[in-house]
Design goal:
The chain is α+β, with helices and mostly antiparallel strands. The chain contains 11 helices and 4 strands, in the order αααααββααααββαα. A hairpin with an 8-residue loop joins strand 1 and strand 2. Helix 6 runs antiparallel to helix 7, helix 6 packs antiparallel against helix 9 and helix 6 runs antiparallel to helix 11. The radius of gyration is 39 Å and the shape is elongated.
């Protein structure tokens, strides 16, 4: 019985050991490049646009055919009976008819189909960029939240150690009860701030999971830099961003939609001209020896007296005007948004540099000086707590400024169509 039990134990142990795929999936840190890749793969808006490609390509193939209308084939057979003994006859006929457009509708229809397909492809590219921008925003929000949690953890450790030191000094009669209560309150405030920051981190991870179409529990810790290159200029200027904004996929899509709408106006105007139907019929008629082969060539043209396609023309003109207004408004709003975000980014970059250069450095220096002065008995507990609180507040302000800087940077690059995170627009 020993060997079967050992074999069973081995099987159970092997079944509980995770495979390589299980240990790597969802356990390793999430990089920005991986987040952008997941966002492109799982974006519902992008997949919905891509699903429309089949319909647009089918419309273009249909418009590329030689003629828009299909020919019509007709077959008839007639049985005649006469009063004479040999007066019965069997007749038959075979005909084909083809409607032909004479107003140039087919060329305009091809233009509209090609422009609609180009617009859809540009919209797919724009949806891909929007998915990447949204994922980048949520990714940097998680980075900022993780940085805030680490900062609050340091705060808890700092004020906990201070409270414990004050409690020992009070036991020795060196500090008062007021000092102990103040230190205890600061420690509890630090714990509360840590709990709040952890809640914000969970919310940020949930928003990132939504952007990546993953369950919140499947989002691991993200890794990356949340910093601003000090002293180095930005890789683009305002003029470059304004020029890049004119070639946005959204702008190209709107221009193609306008082109397609104007082509449809041409189709509807050309439809005022009647279609010419050309027919050819072949048959046998007559009785007995008098049967004849009959060939008939027909030409029919409807008279456009009452219906002149005015409703369709008016609707097509309205659609073309609306497309022109949307394109002009998008161009104007895009330029204004780029200028506004550029101004905000420049201000935030200066603010981050000022915080890093002055307040954060001075606060860290004050902490060291306050600790030495406290040990020497030159300052009291309240003074040291004030210095520690100022240092932590300075780091909190810097973290918020960095988060706002990256949010504005991503929004600016998205609005201008600039390459984001190493990807072409």
């Amino acid at each position: 019985m020993r060997f079967p039990l050992l074999a069973l134990a081995f099987v159970l142990a092997a079944s509980t050991v995770p495979t390589r795929a299980q240990t790597t999936a969802g356990v390793g840190p999430l990089t920005l490049a991986e987040a952008l890749r997941l966002a492109e793969t799982a974006s519902p808006a992008l997949r919905a646009r891509e699903a429309q490609l089949a319909a647009a390509e089918g419309s273009r193939r249909e418009a590329a055919s030689l003629l828009f209308n299909n020919p019509e084939l007709s077959v008839e057979r007639t049985r005649r009976r006469a009063a004479a003994p040999d007066g019965s006859a069997s007749e038959w006929g075979l005909g084909i008819a083809q409607p032909i457009e004479i107003g140039g509708q087919q060329a305009r229809r091809r233009e509209a189909a090609s422009a609609s397909l180009d617009a859809l492809r540009a919209e797919i590219e724009d949806a891909r960029r929007q998915a990447r921008a949204e994922a980048s925003l949520r990714f940097h929000a998680v980075l900022a939240a993780q940085r805030r949690v680490r900062l609050e953890q340091r705060s808890v450790e700092l004020f906990d150690s201070t409270a414990q030191a004050v409690a020992k000094r009070r036991s020795a009669g060196e500090d008062t009860r007021l000092d102990a209560n103040v230190a205890l309150i600061e420690a509890e405030r630090a714990r509360n701030a840590l709990a709040v920051s952890q809640e914000h981190l969970q919310d940020a991870k949930g928003e990132l999971a939504t952007a990546l179409q993953l369950p919140p529990s499947a989002v691991p810790e993200v890794v990356g830099e949340l910093a601003v290159p000090s002293g180095a200029p930005l890789p683009y200027g305002l003029d470059q961003l304004l020029a890049s904004a004119q070639a946005l996929p959204k702008q190209r899509a709107l221009a193609a939609r306008e082109e397609a709408a104007r082509a449809r106006v041409g189709v509807e105007r050309a439809s005022r001209y009647p279609d010419v139907t050309v027919g050819l019929n072949v048959g046998r008629e007559g009785a007995g020896d008098g049967r004849e082969r009959v060939t008939t060539l027909s030409l029919s043209v409807p008279l456009p007296l009452f219906k002149r396609n005015d409703a369709a023309i008016g609707q097509a003109m309205s659609d073309a005007t609306q497309a022109e207004i949307e394109r002009a408004a998008a161009t104007r709003d895009g330029q204004a948004q780029v200028r506004r975000l550029w101004s905000r980014l420049d201000s935030q970059r200066e603010r981050v540099a000022r915080l890093q250069r002055a307040m954060v450095a001075a606060s860290a220096d004050n902490q060291q000086l306050a600790a030495k002065s406290r040990q020497a008995g030159q300052i009291g507990l309240l003074d040291q707590l004030l210095v520690n609180r100022q240092a932590l507040d300075a780091e909190r302000d810097l973290n918020e400024a960095l988060a706002e800087f990256h949010i504005t940077r991503i929004e600016l690059e998205n609005a201008a169509g600039w390459s984001q995170e190493g990807t072409a627009r």
